[in-house]
């Protein structure tokens, strides 16, 4: 008979082994596909990583907004007696939205400056 403690111990072990196995097989299949393309005389596509600064700006400002939302939500809960779910969720959404809007407007300014430089 398997106890609950044994199952709780096996879950992370099986999850880690499963994740590792999946990564190994995905890498193997990717390599096999590239080798088959080379055997047929085709050039396998090169994987170049393009970092988009707009995405970094968007995610960074969203994270700052969510962090501020959590901070203000905590302040509303402790100081003003708001319900904790209302305080946290409303402030996370408000400040997260403000972060996304600010990233949009900053990106618009950056794009406008780049267009003026090109002209």
UniProtKB/TrEMBL annotation:
The keyword Ribosomal protein does not apply. Residues 13-107 form the DUF6249 domain. Keywords: Membrane, Transmembrane, Transmembrane helix. The chain crosses the membrane at residues 6-26, 57-76, 88-106. This is DUF6249 domain-containing protein.
């Amino acid at each position: 008979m398997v106890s609950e403690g044994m199952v709780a111990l096996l879950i992370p072990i099986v999850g880690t082994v499963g994740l590792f196995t999946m990564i190994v097989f995905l890498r193997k299949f990717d390599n096999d596909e590239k080798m088959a393309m080379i055997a047929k005389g085709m050039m396998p596509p090169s994987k170049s990583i393009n970092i988009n600064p707009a995405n970094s700006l968007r995610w960074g400002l969203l994270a700052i907004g969510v962090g501020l939302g959590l901070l203000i939500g905590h302040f509303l809960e402790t100081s003003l007696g708001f319900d904790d779910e209302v305080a946290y969720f409303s402030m996370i959404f408000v400040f997260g939205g403000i972060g996304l809007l600010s990233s949009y407007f900053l990106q618009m300014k950056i794009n406008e400056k780049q267009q003026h430089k090109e002209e």
